[in-house]
Amino acid sequence: MEREIRVKLKFVGALAVLIALGAACSSTKSVNAAKGGKDLKAAPDFALQDADGKTVKLSDFKGKVVLLDFWATWCGPCKIEIPWFIEFQRKYKDRGFSVLGVSMDEGGWQVVKPFVEDFKMNYPVVIGDDATAAAFDGVDVLPTTFIIDKQGRIVAKHMGLVSKDEMEKVIEDLL
Hints:
The protein has a single domain (29-174), classed as Glutaredoxin (3-Layer(aba) Sandwich), CATH 3.40.30.10. It contains five helices and nine strands; from the N terminus they run H-E-E-E-E-E-H-E-H-E-H-E-E-H. The protein has helices at 2-25, 76-92, 109-119, 130-135, 164-174, and strands at 28-31, 41-42, 47-49, 55-57, 65-71, 97-103, 125-127, 144-148, 153-159. The longest helix is centred in the N-terminal third of the chain and has 24 residues, at 2-25.
């Protein structure tokens, strides 16, 4: 009887771990569906350094639709999305669109720069920090992607891997 209980507890524990892992890896989507944009929250501005030491501010992109991607080099789902973002940058840059990558890697440019070069990322990348993540109400899951309209307001927030088609639809609707 005691052995059966231990086996059941182990099973329940394992099941709980699998559910938690599934939730962490699944694509969670939160879209601000406010009509007319009056309830949209302004994206917080930040000033971070790119690989050349140049300061990049989110406010520099006002007037464009921005896909703001919080990611890391070790993040599997991030590696899936980055080629999509490269394609979006190429496809929509002439229509008032830009991708901006915010790496959350603790290794800094020593880790990020070779990754950016290997992936041939064609959009600006900066290194973020805890303060940057906190300004966006915390970035607890990577990737976390925000889509920001031309007025600098957050229109969508995607946590985890979301389908390419879903993201592209939001971008096209804003362009």
